[in-house]
Amino acid sequence: MSDVANRELELEVAGLIVDALNLEVSAAEIDPNEPLYGEGLGLDSIDILEIALVVSKRYGFQLRSDSEDNARIFASLANLTAHIAAHRTC
Amino acid sequence: MTSYPLIGHTGPTQPLAYFRGRVRSAAQFLADAAALAERLPDGDAVFNACQNRYLFAVALAACVLRDKVCLLPASRSADSVAQLREEAPELCCVSDQPDGEPTLPTLQIDDASLAPDGAAHWPPPAIPAQQRVARLFTSGSTGQPQGHDKHWGEFVPAMLAGAARLGLERLPGFVALGTVPPQHMYGLESTVLRPLLCGGVLVDASPFFPADIKAELARLPAPRVLVSTPFHLHTLLESGLSLPELALMTSATAPLASDLAGRLEARFGAPLLEIYGSTETGQLATRRSAETEQWECLSGVTLREDGPEGAIAEGGHLWQPQRLNDRVLLDGARRFSLLGRNADLVNVAGKRSSLSYLTQQLLAVPGVDDGVFFLPEEEGGAGKVARLAALVVAPTLEREALLAALRERIDAAFLPRPLKFVSRLPRNAIGKLPIDALRAALDGANDE
Which ranges carry the AMP-dependent synthetase/ligase domain (chain B) (predicted)? Predict the structure, then answer.
């Protein structure tokens, strides 16, 4: 995926997260390399489930705990975006 | 002296758990518990920090066999553990995590700590009803953790009354899969004690994503009972996934709306029973949420009025009368409707605090001139986790700095979302903050 297409997808995913979680930032303000959990955006496991739900609806695949390293997937917006790019069905 | 057996299974070969995908029999579990009991250090209290549900159950049973109390803090933060230590200076920890508990002498356990394959102990030992077996902590309205003692003679009658209400006699060998951890009251009762004491099968897995729940259920035999929360059930429904046949779903930790309950029953083809309870009382009442908004107390439990919209529960498994944390409308002594939480108490994703405590923490941050925590909307029961909001007057503080300071003081679940900076709070003539004015200020234009 080109850098431009990647950044576009990143912004789209960030927008989904901001909407789903009612966050106080705009999509463009989320640093792609900042942690999503704890420090950084300060999300918790409830948020991660919400994100998993909107991801499954928008991109047509289900996240699983045992198939992939979730800590890595949710480590940053960039990682989550890469995971989505690799697994999306729509 | 009254006593009850350690487990409710009636034969040594009956399945008691699924552990790492394999059946563990009742006699094998007793052997596992006896093996660990021999290795427990001296001292009366043990922090059971095991994350795997089967190892947690073995550690709990081992403590019961040695007449030690399992301490179960509301969270694993350094503060909570320090508080446990103050209560019990000889405290040790049993953990299945590689890093253990750094501030406590820790007995590390893993699969190799269990009895060898084929080991069997039978029959189940009798445990005195008077024996104190667990102490669970709530955050209390001041934020200072409060301990609640649980005795064997409370747990067993509560589990039997609950099983009768849930119809588990008709589901012998029921397999209980939980999306909630075993350390808190609902998970402890419904995913550990109920299978152990009512002849069921506990499952060590704690599935997280909807696809995990589906995959885990597919590995288990019927009759399957899914122990969950409004939030997890809502997510499961919205995922669009189909599930293997369920015999029963249970929900607790927050109210579940009747239409969501109806959709869950229709989709998954099983009754959904909501359980009402608290750390102080354990489970007290149930309702078939798709059909009625009225709760019915478990056998033996009765309610009496205590001030306007207040009630005290007594009888049944309760050793002491207990005031409910919620506002209720009684319909006789055994049925009630929930009107809402006591105004100050909040529960976010099963974690409890109080608005006054959170507000105190906000006001204690240097640079905050005024501020308040409140609920931006009533809990709707639609399976969304209700987050808290805060208004703050802090002209010299950056948002990030304030959030960082709050994060050090309060659990992340309670961080305000949204947090709004205002020039003054909407106090009325007598200096109070009416909830409508707070909500209006949240919706109003930003006056930073």
Answer: 27-292
